[in-house]
Design a protein that fits this description.
Helix content: 40-55%
Radius of gyration: 25 Å
CATH class of the largest domain: Alpha Beta
Order of helices and strands: EHEHHHHEEHHHEHHHHHEHEHEEEEHEH
Number of helices: 17
Number of strands: 12
Number of domains: 2
Strand content: 5-15%
Structural class: alpha/beta
Distance between the termini: 37 Å
Length: 427
C-alpha cells in the first residue's frame, strides 16, 4: 500500500493539502488525531500524569491537551519525555489503521504528519512520497492564532519543530503555501495529477543578487531539473531582468527569457508565459471567435499585457485587432467600450466598471488583489480588476476571481514543464 505523507509546521497548511487529496477519493490518516486518541488510553494517561503532574487533567478526568502542551513544549528535554510516552503508541495505532485500510482494498493512503523529524526516525520511514507544505513564519502564526491558539503557545511549538530547510531536504515534493487555501489546493492537485517531482528553494529578502545568480546557475547545470521558475517580484536590490536572462531559456517554463519572448513574437515554438497561454486556451475551449474582433488589453506588463497582445495578434487563433491601454492612456474608457474582448490585467481592484464595457463583450479578468474582508477566516478576499457584480450582466462571457484565469495559469505552467521534460521545444 502506497503511503503519501504530508509534513509541515503548525499553520503551514497541511490539512488543506490533505483535504485536496482526500477529495480525490484517497483515504487518510491524521496522525494528530491518532495522537489525540492515544491520550485516551489508560496506560498513556497514567504515564503522562506521573511525568507532568495531575494538573494536566481536565475537569472530566481526561488529558487537557493545552495544559499538557504548556508543560511538554517548554524545552526539548520535556518534549522528548512526551514523545517517549506517546510515539510508540501512535505508531501502534497507525500501523493497525494502515493494515485495516489495506484489508479493505485501498491502494494508497494520505497521512498528515505534524511531528515529522526525518525519514529514518519517524513514521515516514517507509513513505512512498513525502510532501512538504511550507509558509512564512508570520503567516503560520497568524493562521494558528485565528484558529484559536494562544500566540505564545504557537511560537513555543514552532520553536520545537524542525526547520523548513530540513523539511525540504527530507521531502520529494514541496509546496509554498503563502496564498489562499484554494491556491494551495490547486497546486497540490496539479502536481499530484501530473506526477511531477518539485521542490522549493526559499531565500530571505536580504539574499544578494550574487547568491541568487549562483542558485540559478546550479539549476541550469543540474541535469535532473527539467524546468524551474524564479518567483517574482524580487527585492528591490536585485535586478529582475538580470535574473531572468541568467535562466537557461530551455528550462524557462515561465516563458520570461528574451529568447522565448522573441520566439513567441514571431510565432516560433517556445515556452509561452503561463497566464496569457491560459487565456488563449480558455477562449479556444469556449469556442469564442477572435478573428477580426476588437481586443483591448488593459495593462502592459512583460508577464501578461505585452505577451497577451502578441498572442491575440498572431495568425491562426488570435488574428484580432489589438489595442493596448494602460494607466496613461488618454482615451482608456472609450477604447474599452469598443472591445469585443476585454482583457483586464492592470492590477487595480474593481477598476473596470459597467460604463467601460460594451454589451455582449467577452471580459477576461486577470487581477488578483487581496482586499480586507472581516467575514473570511483569512481576513481577506481576492478581488479582480473587474467589478464583477456590475459588469457580469452585460457580458456574453466573464471570468470570475478566484476560479477563472488562476487555475488556467497553473495548468499552463504544468504544460510548459511537461514540454520541458519531454524536450518537445528545445531538444
Amino acid at each position: 500500500m502506497k503511503k503519501l505523507f504530508i509534513i509541515g509546521g503548525m499553520g503551514a497548511g497541511k490539512s488543506t493539502a490533505r483535504k485536496a487529496l482526500v477529495e480525490q477519493g484517497l483515504p487518510n490518516i491524521d496522525l494528530d488525531q491518532v495522537g489525540h486518541d492515544v491520550l485516551l488510553w489508560d496506560t498513556v494517561k497514567s504515564e503522562l500524569v506521573e511525568t507532568f503532574g495531575e494538573d494536566i487533567l481536565g475537569a472530566d478526568g481526561e488529558i487537557d491537551r493545552r495544559a499538557l502542551a504548556a508543560k511538554a513544549f517548554v524545552s526539548p528535554a520535556e518534549t522528548r519525555k512526551l514523545n517517549r510516552i506517546t510515539l510508540p503508541r501512535i505508531e501502534e495505532a497507525f500501523t493497525d489503521r494502515v493494515a485495516e485500510l489495506e484489508a479493505e482494498g485501498h491502494k494508497a493512503v494520505v497521512v498528515e504528519h505534524s511531528v515529522f523529524k526525518n525519514r529514518q526516525t519517524s513514521l515516514a520511514y517507509d513513505a512512498d512520497v513525502v510532501i512538504a507544505v511550507l509558509a512564512p513564519i508570520d503567516l503560520r502564526i497568524e493562521r494558528a492564532v485565528k484558529s484559536g491558539w494562544d500566540e505564545t503557545d504557537v511560537r513555543r511549538r514552532i520553536a520545537q519543530q524542525i526547520t523548513d530547510a530540513d523539511r525540504i531536504e527530507a521531502s520529494d515534493v514541496v509546496f509554498n503555501n503563502d496564498g489562499t487555501p484554494e491556491e494551495m489546493r490547486n497546486k497540490v492537485l496539479a502536481c499530484e495529477a501530473c506526477g511531477f517531482e518539485s521542490s522549493l528553494i526559499r531565500y530571505e529578502a536580504d539574499v544578494t543578487e550574487e547568491e541568487l545568480l549562483a542558485c540559478v546557475d546550479r539549476l541550469n547545470r543540474d541535469e535532473k531539473v527539467d524546468g524551474f521558475i524564479v518567483q517574482l517580484p524580487l527585492p528591490a536590490h536585485i535586478s529582475e531582468q538580470k535574473i531572468i536572462e541568467a535562466i537557461d531559456y530551455r528550462k524557462d517554463v515561465d516563458g520570461f527569457h528574451p529568447v522565448n519572448v522573441g520566439r513567441m513574437a514571431i510565432g516560433l515554438p517556445c515556452f509561452i508565459s503561463a497566464t496569457p497561454k491560459g487565456i488563449m486556451e480558455l477562449l479556444r475551449r469556449y469556442h469564442i471567435e477572435t478573428s477580426g474582433k476588437k481586443c483591448v488589453v488593459l495593462g502592459r506588463s512583460n508577464i501578461v499585457g505585452k505577451p497577451m497582445a502578441q498572442l491575440m495578434m498572431q495568425k491562426h487563433y488570435g488574428d484580432a485587432t489589438v489595442t493596448v491601454c494602460h494607466s496613461h492612456s488618454a482615451t482608456l474608457k472609450e477604447e474599452c467600450r469598443q472591445a469585443d474582448i476585454l482583457i483586464a490585467a492592470i492590477g487595480r481592484p474593481a477598476f473596470v466598471t459597467a460604463d467601460m464595457v460594451k454589451p455582449g463583450a467577452v471580459v477576461i479578468d486577470v487581477g488578483t488583489t487581496r482586499v480586507p474582508d472581516a467575514s473570511r477566516p483569512s481576513g481577506f478576499r481576492l478581488q479582480g480588476d473587474v467589478d464583477f457584480d456590475q459588469v457580469a450582466p452585460l457580458c456574453s462571457y466573464i471570468t470570475p476571481v478566484p476560479g477563472g484565469v488562476g487555475p488556467m495559469t497553473i495548468c499552463m505552467l504544468m504544460m510548459n514543464t511537461l514540454a520541458a521534460g519531454k524536450k518537445e521545444i528545445y531538444p
